[in-house]
Design a protein that fits this description.
- The chain is an alpha+beta fold.
- It has a 6-stranded antiparallel beta sheet with strand order 4-3-8-7-6-5. A 5-stranded antiparallel beta sheet has the order 10-9-13-12-11. A 5-stranded mixed beta sheet has the order 15-17-18-20-19.
- A hairpin with a 2-residue loop joins strand 12 and strand 13.
- Helix 2 packs antiparallel against helix 3, helix 8 runs antiparallel to helix 11 and helix 21 runs antiparallel to helix 22.
- The chain is elongated, with a radius of gyration of 53 Å.
- The two termini are 66 Å apart.
Amino acid sequence: MLLAVLSVLGNYLSLPLFFGVDFIFGSIAVMLAVVLLGTVPAVLVAFAGGLYTLVLWGHPYALVIFSVEALAMALLYQRGWRNLVLANLLYWLVLGMPLVLLFYYGLLGMNSEATGLIALKQMLNGCFNTLMAGLLLLLAKLANKKVMAFTGKAELPALLFHSSLLLSLLAGTVPIIYESYSQQFTQETFVYQRLNERAGQFVTHLNVKLADERQGKAEGAMQPDLDATDAAGVFAKIANYLAALPVDDAISLAIVNSSGDVVASRRAALSQLTEGQFKPALDGLDIWLPSSARSVMQRWRQGIYRIQLPLEGHDPLAAVQAFLPAESLVRTLQSQRLELLMMLTLIFLGAVALSHGLSIAISRPLRQLEMDSKQLERKIADGHEALLQPSNIKEYDSLINTLLHISAVLACSFKELKQAETDLKGQVQAQTQALQHTAERLQNILNTIMDGIITINERGMIESVNPAAVQLFGYSAEEMLGHNVSILMPSPHREAHDSYMQCYQAGAPAQIIGVGRQLQGQRKDGSVFDMELQITEMFEHGVRHYVGSVRDISLRLAVEKQKSQFVSTVSHELRTPLTAICGALDMVASGKLGALNKPAEKLIGLARHNSQRLRFLINDLLDLEKLTQGKLEFDLQIQPLQPLLQQAVDSHQTYSVEQHIDIELELPAEELFVRVDGQRLQQVLANLLSNAIKFSPADSKVQLKGQQIANKVRVSVTDSGPGVPEAFKSRLFERFSQADSSDARQHEGTGLGLAICRELMAQMDGCIGFESAEGQGATFWFELPLRSKRDS
């Protein structure tokens, strides 16, 4: 359908080549249909384009010729004629031009000159369109692999033929087209000169006549204008004067008034000029073309050239017009255009012959080289010298010599490669043995490692296990291989395992993979034990696999439980006497038991400070223990964030003033709500703010900032301290972790604050982290889900 529309559009758009010869381009779409679609679609596209010529020229013969052209081209293409231009030229010489003679000379009754002109024009037009279609196909093959896959690769002979033919036609056609337009310009210039000369003579005589008339009517008085009665008389005399002029040639004369109406003319035939319109031909020369004729040539043949010279001072007479029929000029140009068209035909035939010869001459050595090179592989493998035919073209001959040299080098190298192959086989065998030893060693490591190693595929089926895994779960290796890894898990992990793997492979975030976790495993006998699991993902030949490392941590957890119980017991046992000690020291320090001298006051102050530190440590231990065991109660409520931040700043004002630190609070513009335990959140903020104040230098700032990030609320505390050492970052949130743990450290602390903060944030569905560069301060932050006031 698209090609049919393009065919009609191509015939509608025309390119004037020279006088009376226009090229149309509908057959470009027809030739594309021949190559891309086949016989029947090509004929239908040609028929669609030919319908426009039926409307344009009023006869069906061009439609028949174009349809037969499409059929002949399709049949020739199917029989191996890949050069569309030669195939089209063959069609026109054998069938197309005889059909033109039959239809136009025999049936329409045109003269031999007009018929020959049409035959040559249609042949050249068809061949030119075929050349354009061939160039479009070649460019599409070079630019688009899909077209190349459909029609085959572009061939060098075709590229050479079409390129050289196009250049030859351009070189030969441009001078001919220029000559055609020069001839038309010369003829129309001659017409202009004749009409101008004749009209000028008439204007001169008319001026004299009109001056005599005026002089005779009014002696000695100038009368520039004529009244109606005078004008009618003058018009009658001018008409008689025109009729009395000697008959010269086909030139007609007329006088028009200021309104453009003819008031007097020499020939009555000028009345037909009302049935058409004037168009400019040259500067000062117009041509009238009738609107009734169908073709441009018919309108031009019936046209009439016109010039107009003004009459000044003879109102209401405005100008003198001179007319000359265009028929004689058209006959002259038609005889000249036939000569030009025959010359163009000879140039085209010569260009076709030259381009075809050049394409064969240039591509033949390459084809010969292609045939000879097919034997190179066998000859080189046999160690024989290759034989290639020399070429008369320097570049090809240089290429052949290069190939001969390369083949000789390759033949020599082939023997060396065979020897190298033998040596390589020995090396491969040695490397294979080394790899076998390495594989045996790795297998021995897997067999003796204490941790269980299990590999599974992406469907969760166990592929391999080591002896430690067999011993850990109580299954034999045969009982585990090929089964789903969920048999090693208790409920509810067993039921959820397959859905978790499917979600992860579909793009969900990893929950276990790449992250070590503590969970429970199930032995063959049904007993459940605590284990530490680490899973890593690997790809082998593009296939996903998972490797799990399992360690029984039951004993370790039992020890940790005992340690936790011990810490809890000790903390509780210390808390009561420590409270009494702190109270006694406070009473002594207050002076209620008597005034203290300076040494005693200093000693009591040191004891109070250290007892307070010990009390803080015990409180932190107890809080951490409750958090670990899930015994710490939380009163979670949805509440605004801003008052909580302001409360934290207010509670640290005294401490910040003592340390000469300025706390800067930056609150969000909109009110943000979070679901937290207000007391526990204050505990987190107190820890972060006290750390920031403690580690910041005097006369600096600590910034507390709240902001919304997506559907989260982030609270950050930024200090100007020394930052977190790189080596300490991984242990920052562990228990009893301090960057400076020596006895001589500058800043006091238990090392439990951040660990407690992490546990508190986890209980409130939040997370905590930090950003720091050593020596450039640190920013500690925590994030909580953003809540709505309506949720409360």
